[in-house]
């Protein structure tokens, strides 16, 4: 069976090699006579799988020893409330940077708990570039500063890590593991797994240890970083299959040469696609070049009447899930780590052919 090229924004493509490995060991994991899904999370076998996944993630991101890695539930959206509940402490104020739909969602949820200040917004630039460091108006008394490193819908990605006095909190759901980062710059990093990590159902949280002491008393135990950390992310039953499969993806990433190698590939894939868009008359992407996402590439068609045909023909050619987010329309190609360069080549060739047939110069 041939696998299609999948440009879905999430749940997104997983590496063939990883799926084949999971398939091969599905019924009888390592000769134990049961699948990984049918094992106690507290069994020695599973604990080893879980610990190995954490270690591999630590290796890939070079996570310093004074950070806890948590495998939590509730997706990235639950972190929109988990973050204020855990970090506000005695403070009232929290700073948020608005760069699009996801950071705005986080900000809205933050208002339930905090006196939210918008440190900067990309709205005056139509969300086509991120605010610069010198445009951030940071509060003296903020408990933390929240931003989204990559807006999955708008295709807008930060090209710098903000400098802040208060701990920096980053929603990295759609670009974690796409390139090396300096974890020590952050207080908290969180990312839903279903884009660049593994299957849905798990959210990775990387939190600096000194921030574990501030949770508000009303914080549910399952959402308290300290409680989850003390129990090695097994305070309650974790999504064992997602954790296991994410671990296989981490090992696959290591085999690709780690994040430096994968970043070079990602840059190349994105450059090819943006070049195809910029050199065409039919396709367009409005984002400032420094802030163009290397993971999510939205584009519009000059003649919107062609959109339906574009999607139909793309699908017939094995290029799936190119429809843009329902809130903005247009097209979007998500080209996460697991989307091979051949997929981008095939998409670029299809786009050129489509243009020559339906929108000739
Ligand atoms: C940047 C970003 N943050 C948060 C979310 C919400 O994630 P979840 O559905 O896991 O709650 C998404 C989902 O697409 C996202 O792209």
UniProtKB/TrEMBL annotation:
Cofactor mode of binding and number, as noted: Binds 1 pyridoxal phosphate per subunit.
CDD domains for the chain: PSAT_like
Classification via HAMAP family: SerC_aminotrans_5 (MF_00160)
Subunit organization: Homodimer.
Assigned keywords, A-Z: Amino-acid biosynthesis, Aminotransferase, Cytoplasm, Pyridoxal phosphate, Pyridoxine biosynthesis, Serine biosynthesis, Transferase
Gene3D superfamilies: Aspartate Aminotransferase, domain 1, Type I PLP-dependent aspartate aminotransferase-like (Major domain)
Protein name per its UniProtKB record: Phosphoserine aminotransferase
Cell compartments where the protein resides: Cytoplasm
Catalytic activity line of the entry: O-phospho-L-serine + 2-oxoglutarate = 3-phosphooxypyruvate + L-glutamate; 4-(phosphooxy)-L-threonine + 2-oxoglutarate = (R)-3-hydroxy-2-oxo-4-phosphooxybutanoate + L-glutamate
């Amino acid at each position: 069976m041939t696998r299609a090229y999948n440009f879905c924004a999430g749940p997104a493509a997983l590496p063939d090699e990883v799926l084949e490995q999971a398939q091969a060991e599905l019924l009888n994991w390592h000769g134990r006579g049961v699948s990984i899904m049918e094992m106690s999370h507290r069994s020695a076998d599973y604990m080893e799988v879980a610990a190995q996944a954490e270690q591999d993630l630590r290796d890939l991101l070079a996570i310093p020893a004074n950070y806890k890695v948590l495998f939590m539930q509730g997706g990235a959206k639950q972190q929109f409330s988990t973050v204020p509940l855990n970090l506000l402490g005695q403070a009232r104020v929290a700073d948020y940077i608005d760069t699009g739909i996801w950071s705005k969602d986080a900000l809205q949820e933050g208002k339930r708990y905090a006196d939210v200040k918008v440190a900067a917004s990309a709205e005056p630039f139509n969300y086509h570039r991120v605010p610069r460091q010198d445009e951030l108006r940071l509060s003296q008394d903020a408990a933390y500063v929240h931003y989204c490193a990559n807006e999955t819908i708008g295709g807008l990605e930060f090209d710098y890590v903000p400098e802040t006095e208060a701990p920096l909190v980053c929603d990295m759901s759609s670009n974690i593991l796409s390139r090396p980062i300096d974890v020590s710059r952050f207080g908290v990093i969180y990312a839903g797994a279903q884009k660049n990590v593994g299957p849905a159902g798990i959210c990775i949280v990387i939190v600096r240890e000194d921030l574990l002491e501030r949770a508000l008393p009303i914080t549910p135990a399952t959402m308290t970083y300290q409680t989850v950390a003390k129990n090695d992310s097994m305070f309650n039953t974790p999504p064992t299959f997602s954790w296991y499969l994410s671990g296989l993806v981490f090992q696959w990433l290591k085999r690709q040469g780690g994040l430096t190698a994968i970043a070079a590939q990602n840059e190349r894939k994105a450059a090819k696609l943006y070049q195809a868009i910029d050199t065409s008359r039919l396709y367009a992407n409005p984002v400032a070049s420094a802030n163009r996402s290397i993971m999510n590439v939205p584009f519009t068609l000059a003649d919107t009447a062609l959109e339906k045909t574009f999607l139909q023909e793309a699908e017939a050619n094995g290029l799936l899930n190119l429809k843009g987010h329902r809130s903005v329309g247009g097209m979007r190609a998500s080209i996460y780590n697991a989307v091979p360069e051949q997929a981008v080549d095939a998409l670029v060739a299809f786009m050129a052919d489509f243009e020559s047939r339906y929108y000739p110069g």
